[in-house]
Structures are given as structure tokens and as C-alpha cells.
């Protein structure tokens, strides 16, 4: 594979979906592509996800249609095998991943780049409450069981603090993606060119 896989992680409430939405608008037209997540629940605001029933998810999994898949909080998540075609074309591919699944993801994509989004605890609590999916007790329990993040050996990591404004963290995330994409393109072979400027593949 010649592309670069960016594996975005962070605790619930860190604002990953909002940052992904911001970044998609600011790198449109480039070779940075954002993978859908397939999830066994309805999608929410700003989520670049596709909702599947448990039966639909199981059928796709059985056919090997997920490049990555994991389970969390009784839900199933998958990243489609289309990302392998994108990587083969030299694209920079962004996936919204899972911290718990990172070590296994590295076995499939050992050169992936990890971008960790984090925020202050009181910010996480406020955002989780605002989503309205859980009671205050459930939010507190979710925050209490979040284990400290540890990076597997050999992985590369970029931290982005999203405790402040979306624009500030979003611009930092966009800069990271553009830097990865530029570095990736710098290592791609220059295509031969015919007279008249048409590229030869």
C-alpha cells in the first residue's frame, strides 16, 4: 500500500465527529479521504456513519467486507474494505477508530498514524450530557471507566487538545492532515508525461 492511514481516537465527548466534519470541509478536493463507519445504531449530528441492523452488520462481516471491525458498549463498528483501494491509490485515509482496538489495527496497518483527540474532564462530561443519549449517572459511569490511554510500542502519535473552540482544534487537525498528505505525495513517483501534458499511468 502506498497511502497513509490516519487513525483518529479519543474518549467519548472529545469531539471527534465535529473535528472530522470541520476537516472534511477544509480539505475538500484533496487526496485526503474520510472513511464511513458502519454502526449498529442510528447516526447522530455530524456523524459520517452508515447505520446497519445487527443482521446486516453480521452478513457484511461474514463476507469479509470490513477492513477493521470492533464492538463497544453493545454496538458493532466497522470500516469498509474500500479503504484498501484508496490506500493503494496513494490517498491519505482518515478513520474514526477505537482506542481499545488500536493494537489490533496496527497489526493490519503497521504504519498507521495515530491522532489522539482529548479534552478536559469537565468538558467531556458537559458534551456527553448535551448529546442526550445517557442519564447523568450513565455519563458519570462512562467517564469513570475510561482507562488512561497508552500507545502501543512502535506507533506514532499526534495529540490535539479540543477543550477550547472547534475552530482552534479543527485548524490544528487540518494542518496535521495536510502535512501527512504532503509528505505522502512527496514519496509518490512522478508520473510520466506525454507531449501536451497528459499524465501516463
Give the tally of β-strands: 11
- Fill in the CATH topology of one domain: Rossmann fold
Distance between the termini: 17 Å
CATH top level label of one domain: Alpha Beta
The assigned structural class equals: alpha/beta
| Count of separate DSSP helical elements | 7
CATH 2nd-level architecture of one domain:
3-Layer(aba) Sandwich
Strand order of the largest sheet: 2-7-1-8-9
DSSP helix fraction: 25-40%
Beta fraction of the residues? 15-25%
Question: Can you describe what's shown?
Answer:
- The chain has 201 residues and is α/β, with parallel strands linked by helices.
- The radius of gyration is 18 Å and the shape is globular.
- The protein is 37% helix and 24% strand.
- The two termini are 17 Å apart.
- Mean pLDDT is 84; it is low at 190-201.
- Helix 1 crosses helix 7 (166-186) and helix 5 (121-131) packs across helix 6 (136-144).
- It contains seven helices and eleven strands.
- It has a domain at 4-34 and 83-184: P-loop containing nucleotide triphosphate hydrolases (Rossmann fold).
- The strands form three sheets. The chain has a five-stranded parallel sheet, with helices on both faces. A four-stranded mixed sheet has the order 4-3-6-5. A two-stranded antiparallel ribbon has the order 10-11.
Element layout with pairings:
Blueprint: E1 4-9, H1 16-26, E2 32-34, E3 37-39, E4 49-51, H2 54-62, E5 66-72, E6 75-80, H3 82-88, E7 92-96, H4 102-108, E8 113-118, H5 121-131, H6 136-144, E9 156-161, H7 166-186, E10 192-193, E11 199-200
Parallel strand pairs: 1-7, 1-8, 2-7, 3-4, 8-9
Antiparallel strand pairs: 3-6, 5-6, 10-11
Helix pairs in contact: 1-7, 5-6
Amino acid at each position: 500500500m502506498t497511502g497513509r492511514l490516519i487513525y483518529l481516537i479519543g474518549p467519548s465527548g472529545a469531539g471527534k465527529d465535529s473535528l472530522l466534519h470541520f476537516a472534511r470541509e477544509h480539505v475538500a478536493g484533496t487526496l485526503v479521504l474520510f472513511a464511513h463507519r458502519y454502526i449498529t445504531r442510528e447516526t447522530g449530528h455530524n456523524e459520517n456513519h452508515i447505520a446497519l441492523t445487527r443482521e446486516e452488520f453480521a452478513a457484511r462481516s461474514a463476507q469479509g467486507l470490513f477492513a477493521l471491525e470492533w464492538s463497544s458498549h453493545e454496538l458493532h463498528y466497522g470500516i469498509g474494505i474500500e479503504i484498501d483501494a484508496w490506500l493503494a491509490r496513494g490517498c491519505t485515509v482518515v478513520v474514526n477508530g477505537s482506542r481499545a482496538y488500536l493494537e489490533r489495527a496496527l497489526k493490519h496497518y503497521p504504519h498507521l498514524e495515530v491522532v489522539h483527540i482529548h479534552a478536559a474532564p469537565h468538558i467531556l462530561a458537559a458534551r456527553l450530557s448535551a448529546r442526550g443519549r445517557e442519564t447523568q449517572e450513565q455519563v458519570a459511569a462512562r467517564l469513570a471507566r475510561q482507562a488512561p490511554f497508552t500507545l502501543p510500542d512502535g506507533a506514532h502519535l499526534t495529540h490535539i487538545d479540543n477543550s477550547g473552540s472547534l475552530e482552534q482544534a479543527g485548524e490544528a487537525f487540518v494542518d496535521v492532515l495536510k502535512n501527512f498528505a504532503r509528505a505522502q505525495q512527496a514519496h509518490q513517483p512522478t508520473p510520466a508525461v506525454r507531449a501536451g501534458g497528459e499524465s501516463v499511468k
